[in-house]
Amino acid sequence: MCLLRCRKNVKAEAKQIHLSFNSLFPVDKQTIELLHKDARRAVSEHRLSDALGAAEGMAAGVSDVSASTVLAEVREGYAMLLAYMERGVVDSERHRLFAQFLQRTSEAVTALWRSYRLTSETDLYGTTWRVLDKMQSTDWVLTATELEQNAQERLVLETEPASPQREAAQIRLRERYSSLYRNLFNSVWTSPAWRTGDAETALAWMASPSVSAFDKCVFVSAVGLGALEVFDARKVSFLLSLTTTPDVAVRVRAQVGGTLAFVAHVEECRLYPDLMAQWAVLSDEPGFTHSMLELQMQLWQSLDTKRVEKNLREEIFPEMMKRADRFRMDATLSADEAMEKAVEAGLNPEWESAEDMSVLEKKLRDLAELQQSGADVFMASFRMLKQKFSFFSSVVNWFCPFSPNHPELPPQAVDRSLLQMFLAPGHLCDSDKYSFLLMLGEMPAAQHRALSGQLAAAMEQHGEAMEQRAAEPLGAMEERRMYLQNLYRFFKLYNRRSGLSDPFAMNLQLLECEPIGALLSSAQHLRQLADFAFKEKNYSCALWCYEQMPEAETDAIVWQKRGFCHHSAGHHAEAAVAYERANLLRPGSAWTLGRWAACLTRLSRHEEALRCYEELELITPEDISTLLQAGRCYAHFGRYDEAFERFFKADYLAPEDGRVQRAVAWYSLVAGKPEQAERYYAKLLAVSPSADDWQNAGHAAWVSGRVGEAVLRYRKAVEALQCDFPPVDFWMRDADVLARYGLLHDDLRLMADLVMQR
Among 196-210, 346-360, 406-420, 478-492, where is mean pLDDT lowest? Predict the structure, then answer.
């Protein structure tokens, strides 16, 4: 009786708390979103009471009876658990129950968040579900079953003799299929959390011989997109279970979808031990770890798409357009075709470091190397087409595997079987291929005929090779690259993408996400990832990987690259440490010594820098940069004789080098040798002087007593700076040097007024 009264009291208390939240929190969008974040954070930190409070606040503004019931049950059960704990009752099930309460609360929060989104007028996820609800098509199992039946009926019709009735039936079934595959995608994408048995139902449907490869890919993409948008442990587990299937296209979509959903909801995933353990099981599968290694590299490349696009738009293509009369290039050339174009233009594609390589040749090689490395070089080319054609207003069409017989493609004059062979090699992702076909559909009839003729002629010449290439299935790496590009285009170009969970906006450093990171944590894998990121100029990721490597596995090259990564980020102290380690492991490297000395100079550790330069001089005694840096270092200590020994040697080796002339001129001025400075500034002013050259030459004239000449040179410096008046620090930054010649602060002010007189 005592326990019964306690249970009734707990129920009443839980109900009262729930009602209090109904009155405390207003029902508005901002409140719901804040409560959702609070509830998520509290669950991840195992603060169950706080999580329940935030979730109950959400329930006050969202109509979801099932989720509210779960919260009430958890509140009641947790209160009882705490009551027993307070009494000192020994309970071996306490930790299991607490974990279960956290899991159920998390699921209720997810359900409430989904219910809230379904009512939003602007949320694409919600509006898609409401359209399905009006059509009574939200049950994906029924839609999948009808799609399978549709496929079976179409197969039966193909065996029947040709007749008007058969043709009419085929048209009807194709039209029905066109709506079914869209409804299947949308209903799976927006479906609530899967129940027990749903995953088995999905696997059985996919195993049916009546279900096409096209439909399987659409289904798996929808599951991945849905799990990314609204967390569902069963969907994530389903996707992971398909990452070892023999079907490459399905396997890749499952791997990408499952991984991105896991990373997006890793805190929720940690509440499910079986889901976490699934990664450990997968690590024993042959080739799985290697595929995750490739996925990490390709995700980094996806994040680099903006930089590649900018490089193409601002550097590579403009240079090609300048030479359009000699070199015809378009944005859809493959790497091999780019090299062929280079040969046609009389360029040598094997030139690696010829000093006379033209800018065009370098840009051409950049394009070929970008594509060969797997970079997305076609994003810009198809951007406008994605926004032009209504085909891409349907979310599903961004994720369909390429087929020239896609039910929503318009009829075209071009032979589709021929066209498929041209598009088969895999340079374009699926959505870009659809863009290409749609573009062809708008061509005038004459151009259609011309293109068909060109394709037919090419088939006569290269038909056998093209058929072989078209028949060869793409490898997992190519298939994954194409699918990631499909995803990237959708989340960056789809006109209603706002509000969706963009995976490319989250942290895609898989190494930091356990247990995925454990798969890639060996020294060998870290080295592979680091070297790849370094080659791609992704220095932050490269540095992170290098720093995770065990000390015993690092060599001089690793420390050199660590130093370079730090140096590129402006971390001179860390870079200096890395270069020092590299020098210990491989003494006598001119590159290491030069970079190390540069960092030490930036850190004002001039004595250490000088020792580096002295050692570097022994290795490269005639290197101009080394001589100049060593000379500057000697000059810092006032050892001008030794400094000028290096400067004059550099001047002898490179008498026309402006860097050398500027060093000799400036340090002559610093060392109290204005006549020598004047001789070298005269050389600089005779060629193509900079603003600094005019200013420093003005100093030389002024300290030599030629004030009028100094004024003219200062005015030239101001003109070169494109200013009306000298900048505030125009003389002050060199005040210490001028002071050595007796020119004090008032002299500088007088000169400023003199220069501004016109």
Answer: 346-360
* CA distances in angstroms from 671 to 245, 606, 624, 663, listed in the order given: 75, 19, 21, 12
Q: Which residues contact 410 (CB under 8 A, 6 or more apart)?
A: 438, 441
Phi, psi dihedrals of residue 692, rounded to the nearest 5°: -65, -40
Nearest CA among 568, 517, 580, 513 for reference residue 543: 568
Q: Is 409 exposed, middle or buried (0-12, 13-18, 19+ CB in 10 A)?
A: middle
CA distances from 404 to 175, 434, 486 (A): 16, 8, 17
How far is it, in rounded angstroms, from Cα 610 to Cα 631?
A: 9
The percent of the chain in helix, strand and coil, each rounded to the nearest 5, is 75, 0, 25
Q: How far apart are CA 341 and CA 349, in angstroms?
A: 10
* Residues 448, 441: Cα–Cα separation, whole Å: 8
Q: Cβ atoms within 10 A of the Cβ of 727, count?
A: 12
Q: Supply the angle between the helices 674-685 and 691-703 in degrees, to the nearest 10.
A: 150
Say how many CA atoms lie within 13 Å of 745 toward its Cβ.
0
Contact 203, 247 (CB under 8 A): no
From CA 260, how far away is CA 242, in angstroms rounded?
Answer: 15
Which of 208-211's residues contact partners 24+ apart within 8 Å by CB, and which partners? 208/148, 210/148, 210/151, 210/152, 210/155, 211/147, 211/148, 211/151
Q: Sign of the C-alpha dihedral, residues 281, 287, 289, 295?
A: negative
Exposed, middle or buried, 167 (CB in 10 Å: 0-12/13-18/19+)?
exposed
**How do residues 327-379 score in pLDDT, each as one tens digit?**
444 444 444 444 444 434 433 344 344 443 456 566 656 666 666 666 777 78
- The number of beta carbons lying within 10 Å of the beta carbon of residue 13 is 13
Residue 577 to residues 185, 208, 570, 592, Cα–Cα distance (Å):
54, 61, 13, 11
pLDDT tens track for 532-577: 999 988 999 999 999 999 999 999 999 999 999 999 999 999 999 9
Instruction: With beta carbons less than 8 A apart as the criterion, state whether 224 and 263 touch.
Output: no
Nearest to 176 by CA among 193, 205, 209, 154: 154
Q: Measure the CA angle with vertex 481, ends 479 and 486; round to 5°.
A: 95
